Known about the structure:
2 copies of one chain form a homodimer. Chain A is an alpha/beta fold. Chain A has 7 helices and 13 strands. The relative contact order of chain A is 0.14. The C terminus of chain A is likely disordered. Chains A and B meet through helix 2, strand 11, helix 5 and helix 7 of A and helix 2, strand 11, helix 5 and helix 7 of B.
Amino acid sequence: MSDRKLIRLLLEHDLAAGANVMLAEAQAHYVIHVMRVEPGASVLVFNGRDGEWTATVQRVGKKGCTVALHNQTRAQIPEPDVWLAFAPLKRARIDMLVEKATELGAAALLPVFTQHTNAERINLERLRATAIEAAEQCERLTVPRIEPAVDFQQLLARWPTTRSLLVLDETGAGVPIAAALAQTASLPCGFLVGPEGGFTKSELDALTQLAFVTRVGLGPRILRAETAALAALVAWQSLVGDWRSSPQSPLAKSPLAP
Amino acid sequence: MSDRKLIRLLLEHDLAAGANVMLAEAQAHYVIHVMRVEPGASVLVFNGRDGEWTATVQRVGKKGCTVALHNQTRAQIPEPDVWLAFAPLKRARIDMLVEKATELGAAALLPVFTQHTNAERINLERLRATAIEAAEQCERLTVPRIEPAVDFQQLLARWPTTRSLLVLDETGAGVPIAAALAQTASLPCGFLVGPEGGFTKSELDALTQLAFVTRVGLGPRILRAETAALAALVAWQSLVGDWRSSPQSPLAKSPLAP
């Protein structure tokens, strides 16, 4: 992270040269009082659809703030399509999971209540705010979609049958993740990580009966749930996703390519 | 994580059938008052050298506690030899880094002060306690070695020239990590992750002149320092380390194998 990089802001408004966007009150407060952006200073803005633009901050009255758009700095490009379904965790760990999953490029986060899940409810609004802040900081052009929580049966019933579901399996019976990714690299993909208490036998049985499910292993140590979730995203990005090329180096041949 | 798994304790003492080990006062307090282990209950113990053993907790006086060893449950086996050098971070993030690096099987953690490092000192004792707790929970047979902090020049001067050093490079000029690991898979390996402010130009120049250094990239998003560190360890374990086989599934062919 450069120490001189510009503040980035997620907007809802369409972005185009000359657009002048009034910020919502909370965002204006964040820009003026938290980030202490001076009037006339440059920021970067994005909305998940129209790429990234330079803009200038302007004050309106005591509390208001607008941004005036100038030039597009990056075009919107397709982003990796990997989903993460996870059993909700206690506050500090679920916040960390959402922050890191955003940095690691997850397209969608799907909270799912399993039988051993400890958390009783989740605060979607807080998780969305965490994802937006992480997306602003990590220079993503989108924010991951965070779905309302569903229960385990609903998740499986609604899962698209054309998307492979790699279930992080701590029983030791899973396929090593690099091998599993090599087998499924051509398909859209999602991961499912269970709670600290693990999946129940009936849950594992239900998963094993589904053609789109592969049980995958992450080595001999027992990872915490959030570590396993992030590890899955890292392995996917390294082997299948957009970490296979560098902005300034030639596209490297994937080790998974034939 | 099974919800019925046994408490695991790191001991310093040699482990053998019939051994009876008096716990240090702080550990006895942890066992009796924090984990509320009842006298006569079973625990697992390890010391990083003699594998893992079952043992029975016994009380001695008001504050004392011994463990009586029975059977070895796992033999000591060689563990992955991957190092992580990192610029110290603020408290919550460095604690998280040490916890996760332990789960992810790092053999050694090497704090290094670079020019843009924000933290001024580190609490080695707290970090070692964090690593021990993580090793106990994740069922590791060892605890990562945490070295005293050195400055950037010392790190490079002392780095074994036969160990490849993969530097996490956020400038976009690095080789994609999977490709870099494919090139260096036969060598011992370590990673270096810089501070939030990045490496300075002179630091990057110094790194580039070393034959054992490869600059590696982790995709187009700007990862926080601790995310980058954990991502490097995950990629290494998936492609080179002990995640390539599962305890209960046949050794999978590595995508890096010729």
